[in-house]
């Protein structure tokens, strides 16, 4: 549905939006823009997430704290050697300090509405469960064109939504779910065979078994692009597509099944360590450079994209660093 039709659908209606991340925030912002305080948009938030106005905390762009090679030295990595393990262990307090520094700034506007999450900003970035607020989000909360409710449970009734611990119902003409979708199902439903469905997505106690976040070792004919989360999904998917095309062209060979499974398990350990209950998302948010390095080496490309030692260590890595990446032909 386009923006115009969406506005027509919501205009003059009592709208309830379920969710608290990007989709829900954007829908609520559009609704508030159309209806104002005459018909406030109600947001039902069951899980509090870090919702930030921008990527600058106390005058420091947080990408300088998290999106360079130095930042990755503070984190344990899959397949790291002893020296990198020692560095990550010793520098762990600095990682905690970075997180608290940014949290102290971003929690200021959220405290007023009791929306400070119970998990750290570091975990939010590790899982890519973070969102930028739409323009004037807090202004709309202040004026009342968006109303926040934080129930643990809710149910539907004839003319709206019944919210836990509220005697009156939330009257609604339209209820919109901004809760995303289950990526596991997208992969599983490719198959009709129950056997392959189980192999494709693995156990719920582990990550989805994808080598380089693309290929299942036991189903090498299937490549998945877009399941694993990153801070910038578009360019990550493009890089994976280049990697896959180079593989199909015969540019490199996959390791044997045992070696691929070992690599998957190493990534799984890191995801469980830093992503907590959200490890199943297979997010590479805080190990994006390390991950890109592996793809580059597979394609015969130089993973070092900066000029000079200090630039390589401290400069921010972004999509532009991989714009001229061309796999070597065999």
TrEMBL record:
Family label: Belongs to the FMO family.
Keywords: FAD, Flavoprotein, Monooxygenase, Oxidoreductase
E.C. numbers: 1.-.-.-
UniProt GO molecular function: flavin adenine dinucleotide binding; N,N-dimethylaniline monooxygenase activity; NADP binding
Biological source species: Eleusine coracana subsp. coracana
Cross-referenced Gene3D superfamilies: FAD/NAD(P)-binding domain
Record Pfam families: FMO-like
Lineage per the UniProt record: Eukaryota, Viridiplantae, Streptophyta, Embryophyta, Tracheophyta
Signal peptide range in chain numbering: none
Keyword Transcription carried by entry: no
Protein name: Flavin-containing monooxygenase
Domain of life of the source: Eukaryota
Cofactor entry: FAD
């Amino acid at each position: 549905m386009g923006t115009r039709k969406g506005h027509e659908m919501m205009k003059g209606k009592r709208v309830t939006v379920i969710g608290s991340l990007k989709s829900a925030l954007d829908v609520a912002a559009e609704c508030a823009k159309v209806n104002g305080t005459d018909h406030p948009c109600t947001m039902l938030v069951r899980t509090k997430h870090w919702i930030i106005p921008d990527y600058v905390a106390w005058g420091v762009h947080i990408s300088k704290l998290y999106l360079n090679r130095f930042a990755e030295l503070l984190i344990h990595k899959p397949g790291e050697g002893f020296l990198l393990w020692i560095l990550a262990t010793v520098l762990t307090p600095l990682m905690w300090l970075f997180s608290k520094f940014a949290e102290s700034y971003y929690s200021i506007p959220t405290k007023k509405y009791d929306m400070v999450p119970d998990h750290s900003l570091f975990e939010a970035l590790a899982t890519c469960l973070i969102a930028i607020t739409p323009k004037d989000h807090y202004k709309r909360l202040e004026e009342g064109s968006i109303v926040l409710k934080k129930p643990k449970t809710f149910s539907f009734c004839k003319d709206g939504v019944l919210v836990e611990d509220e005697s009156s119902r939330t009257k609604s003409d339209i209820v919109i779910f901004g809760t995303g979708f289950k990526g596991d199902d997208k992969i599983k439903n490719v198959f009709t065979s129950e056997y392959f469905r189980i192999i494709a997505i693995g156990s719920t106690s582990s990550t989805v078994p994808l080598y380089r976040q693309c290929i299942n070792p036991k189903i090498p004919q299937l490549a998945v692009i877009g399941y694993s989360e990153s801070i910038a999904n578009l360019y990550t998917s493009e890089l994976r597509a280049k990697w896959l095309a180079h593989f199909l062209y015969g540019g490199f060979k996959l390791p044997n099944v045992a070696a691929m499974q070992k690599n998957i398990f190493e990534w799984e350990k890191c995801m469980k360590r830093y992503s907590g209950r959200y490890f199943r998302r297979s997010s590479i948010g805080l190990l994006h450079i390390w991950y890109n390095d592996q793809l580059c080496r597979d394609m015969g490309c130089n993973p070092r994209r900066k000029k000079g030692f200090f630039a390589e260590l401290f400069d921010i890595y972004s999509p532009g660093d991989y714009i001229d990446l061309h796999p070597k032909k065999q």
